[in-house]
Write a structure and sequence with these properties.
homodimer, 579 residues, alpha/beta, eight-stranded parallel sheet
Amino acid sequence: MADLKKRIDCAMKRKKCDLVIKNVSVFNVFTGKTEACDIAVADGAVVGLGSGYEGARVYDGQGSVAIPGLMDAHIHVESSTLSPEAFAQIVCAHGATAIVADPHEIVNVCGVQGAEYMKESFHRLSVNGTSPLDVYLQLPSCVPATPFETSGAVIGGRETERELARDIFFGLGEVMSYPSVLGAEEDMLRKLQAADELGKVADGHAPGLSGDGLNAYLCGGMRTDHENLTPEECREKVARGMYVQVRCGSSTNNLADVAKACDGFNFRRFITCTDDKNARDLSQRGHLDDLLRRLVAAGVPSERAVVMATLNVAECYRLKGKGAIAPGYCADIALVNDLKDFRVKATFKSGELTAENGRALFEGKRYLPDSVLGTVHVKDLSAKDFAIPCKSGKLRALGVSPQSTIVTHEEIVSVGVKNGFADLTGTGLCKLAVVERHFASGRIGLGVVKGYGFKGGAIGISVAHDAHNLVVLGDSDEAMARVVALLKKTGGGMALVSAEGEETFPFDIAGLMSSAPLEEVVKGAGDITVHAQQMGVTEGIESFMTLVFLSLAVIPNLRLTDHGLVDVNRFEIVPLEVN
Amino acid sequence: MADLKKRIDCAMKRKKCDLVIKNVSVFNVFTGKTEACDIAVADGAVVGLGSGYEGARVYDGQGSVAIPGLMDAHIHVESSTLSPEAFAQIVCAHGATAIVADPHEIVNVCGVQGAEYMKESFHRLSVNGTSPLDVYLQLPSCVPATPFETSGAVIGGRETERELARDIFFGLGEVMSYPSVLGAEEDMLRKLQAADELGKVADGHAPGLSGDGLNAYLCGGMRTDHENLTPEECREKVARGMYVQVRCGSSTNNLADVAKACDGFNFRRFITCTDDKNARDLSQRGHLDDLLRRLVAAGVPSERAVVMATLNVAECYRLKGKGAIAPGYCADIALVNDLKDFRVKATFKSGELTAENGRALFEGKRYLPDSVLGTVHVKDLSAKDFAIPCKSGKLRALGVSPQSTIVTHEEIVSVGVKNGFADLTGTGLCKLAVVERHFASGRIGLGVVKGYGFKGGAIGISVAHDAHNLVVLGDSDEAMARVVALLKKTGGGMALVSAEGEETFPFDIAGLMSSAPLEEVVKGAGDITVHAQQMGVTEGIESFMTLVFLSLAVIPNLRLTDHGLVDVNRFEIVPLEVN
C-alpha cells in the first residue's frame, strides 16, 4: 500500500527522503528531453525531480543518465536455461526492472504448477516486500502447441477459463495457433473470450498475417505481436491496432527491419522484447541494453528507443506507475553511461539498488520444489528402439544448412537397407529421435537429418520446443540409447556420448533450466557444446541449439515429434519412408 | 459480452456483417494517415477495414472522413443546464461517443443520489443494451469545495472510501483543493489513498502549480489537469507525468496557449475536454468538433488534434477498445466533412447510427425522480432580511469589469448610512445576497458589487458554484426578496423582477438543469438574459453568468457565500464593513 502522506511530505521537503540520486541527467519519456537534476525517492516512488532534497541515503550517479527501468514485453525465461533467480540477477544487472513472462516451456512440461513455481521463485527474491524484478506472468495459450506431440500437460478452454481468473496470471500468453483463431475453433474461442471478459491482455504471434486474416485475428483480442518479418508487415499491424514488439533474441535477427517501420508518429505502438535469450548472450551481450544499442545503431533516435523499452510497454500492458521517472511513479531506474551505448552502471527497483557495475546485489535464493524436479520419465530404451524400418531405401529427411538452421527443408534421400531397416552408413545423414519424456510411454518419433554433419556417437537435449520431449541425434543407435539413459539420470539437460566417453550438463529444473549460477551454466553448457561441435558438426550450425527447434511443429517445413514427421505446411503427419 | 465468434466470422467474410460503411476515408490514429476503405461492423465492433464486405445494412458516407467517436475527458454536464438526455442528444449530434463526467454540481446539491440520477438518466437512453454515449462517472472529490459555504451534501474521506468502491464510479473527480493535498490533510489523503488502492483515476485541478508543489500534488496520484494557464505550465505538467487536458469551454479561452506546448513528441499526453459548456454554445458552436476546429486553427496538425480527442483519452483513462477505428475496437465513429472544419455528418455508437445531419436519432426519455426535484428549500424572506447593517459608511465591495468577469477585485467603497443600515442610493453599486437553499436555514451572506451596472429591480439564479445556493443581485431589497420567492416556487432556475413584472426560467432538476428540450432552454434562458441585460448591466458583462461565479470561493480575490465575504487569497471570512 502506497504511503501517500510520506511521499507528499518528502516532495514538499518537510521530511527526509529515503534516497536521493545526485549527479545525473534524467531522461524524460514524456518530452524526449534530458535534464540535469536530482531524483528524490521515498516509499519506493519518485517524489521529486529538482534540487535541495535531503536523503537518508545519497547515491552519486557520477554523471550518468537516468532512464526508467527497462521492461521486456515478452520473454520465455526458460530459454535462458537459467533458474528464475539467476535470470533475475543477470537481467537486473543489465537495467531491467520488469518482464512480461510467458512460462510456455515449463507449463508444457509441468502444467500450471510450472507457472506457480516461476511466480514463487521470483517472489522469493523480494526483500521487505520489494522484488528486484516485476514479473507479469502470462498463462500460456498453446499447451500443447500442436496436436502432433505429447506435452506434459494440456490446458484447454475450460482450464483457461478457470486459471486465467486467478491473480497470478496477468494475461494470456502468445496465441500461436492463429489458424484456430481464424477458424473460430471452439476451444480457442473459450480462451480468447475468457481473456476478453476478464479484461486481461492477450499476446499475439502471427508471422506474416495480413488483410482479412489479420483483422480476424485482432477480433480475437490479441494486442501485441513479436513475429514480424518485414517493415510492411509491421506497418500494417500497427495500423490495425497492434503493438509491434521489437525483438532481439538469441535466434532472431530482423530488428533492423522492424525498426524501419517505426516513425515519429507511430513509435508509441512499438515495444521491446527478447522472447528467447540464452545464458551466454545475456552474459556477454546483455539484455534490453543490447537491444537499445542495436535499435540506435539501426537509426532509431535514442529518445524513441528508450520510450519503446519503458513508457510504451507500461501503456501497452496498462501498468500503473511504471515506465517513467516522474513524481508518483515507481522508482524503477537504470543509470547508463549515455543514450548510445547504454552501458548500465546501476539499477534501482522501487528505490532499492539492485545491481551495480554488472553485478546483482541480491542473493539468488535457491527454491527447488518437487513439482519441477525429476520430470524426465522415459522407458528404458536400447539400440533397437532407434532402428528405422525401411524397404524402399528412400526417406523423407529434414534438411538444415548454416543459412537456415531454424527453417528446415524437406528432402528425399536414399539410404541403404539392411534386414528391413535403414542403414545410414556412408550417407552423411544423421539419425534423429524424439522420445516422449513426460509419461514414459515409450513413444518415439524417428527421422533423418541432412546437412548437420555429425559423427562418432550421439547428443541429446531435453529442451525441445514446445513439448520438450528428448531430442537425440547421432550416427549410432547404441550411443543414442545411452544419451537417453543419461538424460533420464540427470533429470534432463544436455548429454553427449562419444568414443571418449560420456558428458552431461544437467537442466534439473523441469529438464529446461539449471539451478546452477550463471557462470557455471555458461561454462558448462559452453563446454559440452564445443565438444559436440568438434564431432564434425557443419560449420555455422549450432549443435544443440539446432536440435532444440527440430521438433517445433509450427515452423516450416518438416519437423519431427514423438508422433512422427510433421509436414508443417500441410499441418499433418507424413510417413518417413517414401515409396 | 463480446461475441468473438461472430466478429471473427464476419472479419473472414464467412458471415454477413451488421453494417458496412462505404464511400469514406478512414483516419488512422496509430499512423496519422487516412486511407480510402470500407468499415465492416459486427457485434458492435469494427471487424475489418477493406473491401468486399456484405452488410445487413450499408451506409453511404458520401465521401466523408471517418474518425473515432470524440471523447470528452472532463465535463460537468450540469453546466449545460440541460437534462442528461438533452445533453446526450446535442453532443452525439456533434460526434461525441464518450464523456468522463464529473457530476460535481448536482452532488453538491443532492449528494450521491445526484450522481445516481445522472448515471440512470444516461443509462435509460440505451436501446438493446447500447448506449449512444459512454459515460464514465467520477465521484466528486470536493463536496463542499470550501469550508466557507453550505452545500446540500458533504462527502468526506470515509464516504469517499465507501462510494468510490462502487462500480458506478469510474474515478475520483477533479481534486481542486490542492492546498489540502500539499498539506497532506487527513481527510483528503483518505480520498486519494482510496483512489490509489482501487486503481481508479483521479483527475486534477491545479492552476499555476509548479515545482515542489506540483511534484507533491502528483504524489497524491492526480493524472490529469485542465487548469493550465501558460505553455510553460503545460510543458512542466507533461514533463512531470500529467495528461494536460486542452479545454474549450464556454468561459475559458486559452486553448491556443495550451496548444503551443504540444509538439510531435509529447502530443500523446494531451487530451481534449470542455469542462463547462452551456446550452447555447453547444447548440451554436458545437462540442468537441468546435474544439478540434480551434486546435487546428491554432496550428496543431489535424492528425495530432484528432488523436488528442480519441486515442489519447482512451489511453489516459485506460478505456479498452476505445479511441480507434480498428478491428476489435468498438464501432464508435464520427463522419466529418474534412479534418479542418470537422462538420459532423453522422455519428455511430457501437455500430448504431445515433445522429445524422446535426440531429440525434434517439429519443430523450424523460426521467425525473424525486431525488432531484424540489431541491430549493428557503425560509420566507422579506425586504428587511437584505438590509446591510452599517455604521462606518465603508464597505468591502466585489469589483467586476468587462475585462475580468470571473476574477473579482476587492475595493473599499463609500455608501450612505440610514437608520444604521447601508444606503446604496446614488452609488451605482448593487446589493448581492447569497441565500442558503438546501436546508432552509435562513442563512444569508450579504455584500455589494461594483461595476455591474444594474438598476430597477433584482435578478437571481440557483446555479452558483460550487454550493449552488441562491445568488441574488439588485438595487431593491423588496425585489430581491421577491426573486427568492420566485426561485423557491419554480424549484430553482433564473428569475427577474422589474417594474414590468416578474419573469422566470426554471431549472427544475436540482435547481441546475432544465428538463425542457434544448431549443426551449436556449430560447428561455436567452430571453430572460436579454431582459436582464437591458436593466443597465455594463456592456461586456453577462448578467446571469457573472452571478454564477460570484460565490465560487476558490477563484481570486473576493467572493460571497452564505457564510459571508471570503478573501480567497487569505482563505478566510472577512467582514463586509470596514472601519
